[in-house]
Design a protein that fits this description.
By secondary structure, the chain is α+β, with helices and mostly antiparallel strands. The chain has 11 helices and 5 strands, in the order ααααβββαββαααααα. The protein starts with 12 loop residues before the first helix and ends in a 33-residue tail after the last helix. The mean pLDDT is 87.
């Protein structure tokens, strides 16, 4: 029976394409699924059910067995199903019978050793192959442009259908409702295949053999070896040469180097600190360090008894406060929230922040700034 998890998975392609030896390094660490991953898995199950029923397919309702199910997940899944249905209906305008596949297993081992995965939805119509991927995550905004996971799925779909349909264009969509993100990227079939041969295949072969050079970057955040990787440590510790030097004494080029690495540096430092804490909790001793009890806030042991006692004393134990916007949207659901409260919501001007030039937000002019320090 084939493995349920590919060594070179499409979901981790961004990492192993940039750091080929990380694959073998990660194999030495235990796989510990996160709560976020578990929630995402359940959301995908619900999305599959919603999409199938909206297309008139038979499907078993997974809701009773979803331990993390809530109104937000329901709304996200409904939105995903509606979006895909719109794409199918749009394809039907130029194609009498568009082919739609849900949770389609795809094999891209022609370019990636033992490479396979599951595409959330594949639509083929009028010379275009469309791949739609649902992302339930809230923390990281996922873009479709040159997204290696999506491109691997598209290659796998081409392997299945390229000989049956006259496909000339590939469209890839990330549907990420909790970030209000629908990202679409289109590429020609020939360009995709060229990328697979010149970029994907050589890197995948190195990664499968555990060869190549370590490279640290933002992809390290999803690496199981991120806490103890020596290459990552050495790359970040290079900034130590700037220690104890006043910012005003740094040359422009030095500040630019620090700006380009500071997010990775703080992330790495946080990962190391967390690793050290977890190891200490497991019994390891670190020279010069000790475990102590952290600060804690007081709390009630029985709120009902507190309410009773305060009321009997003639006081009101409650405070009235409007729910925050995120909590209110979760309570009402996105559609009802927009209908009832959109007229009463404003988004203040954000404070200036330095970002790389690749950031898609428009540049602001210093002359037009009207910010006041609080």
């Amino acid at each position: 029976m084939p493995s349920q998890h590919a060594i070179l998975s499409a979901s981790s392609a961004h990492r192993w394409l940039n750091c080929t030896p990380s694959v073998k390094l990660c194999e030495t660490f235990e796989d510990k699924p996160s709560e976020y991953a578990a929630e995402g898995t359940e959301a995908h199950e619900l999305c599959e059910y919603k999409l199938k029923t909206s297309l008139g397919m038979e499907a078993d309702d997974p809701t009773p067995k979803l331990s993390r199910f809530n109104d937000e997940m329901e709304e996200c899944a409904n939105g995903y199903a509606s979006y895909v249905l719109e794409q199918v209906n749009e394809a039907s305008k130029t194609c009498s019978d568009p082919k739609v596949l849900i949770e389609q297993r795809v094999d891209f081992s022609r370019w990636v050793p033992e490479g396979f995965g599951t595409a959330d939805c594949v639509i083929i119509a009028d010379g275009t192959l469309r791949v739609v991927d649902y992302k339930h995550g809230l923390g990281v905004l996922v873009e479709a442009e040159m997204n290696p996971q999506m491109m691997c799925y598209a290659l796998g779909a081409l392997e299945l259908f390229d000989a049956l349909y006259d496909i000339s264009k590939v469209s890839m969509t990330i549907y990420q409702p909790r970030r209000d993100n629908i990202s679409i990227f289109e590429i020609s079939r020939d360009e995709l295949l060229a990328w697979a041969e010149t970029v994907l295949k050589p890197a995948a072969e190195l990664a499968f053999e555990g060869k190549g050079e370590f490279h640290c970057g933002e992809w390290c955040g999803f690496c199981k070896a991120k806490h103890t990787c020596r290459a990552r440590a050495e790359a970040n510790l290079q900034l130590a040469r700037h220690d104890f030097k006043l910012p005003s004494l740094l040359e422009d080029v030095e500040i630019e180097v620090i700006l380009s690495k500071v997010d990775e540096l703080t992330s790495w430092a946080s990962d190391v600190k967390d690793y050290a804490l977890q190891s200490a909790l497991g019994g390891k001793s670190w020279t010069g360090w000790k475990l102590v009890e952290g600060r804690a806030n007081r709390r009630y042991t029985d709120e009902n008894e507190v309410i009773r006692a305060v009321c009997e004393a003639g006081f009101d134990p409650f405070e009235k406060k409007v729910l925050g916007i995120t909590a209110m949207q979760k309570l009402l659901g996105k559609t009802k929230f927009e209908k009832l409260l959109s007229a009463y919501i404003e988004k203040p001007q954000g404070k200036p922040t330095l970002v790389p030039e690749s950031d898609k937000r428009p540049k602001i002019s210093c002359a037009n700034l009207d910010f006041k320090e609080e």
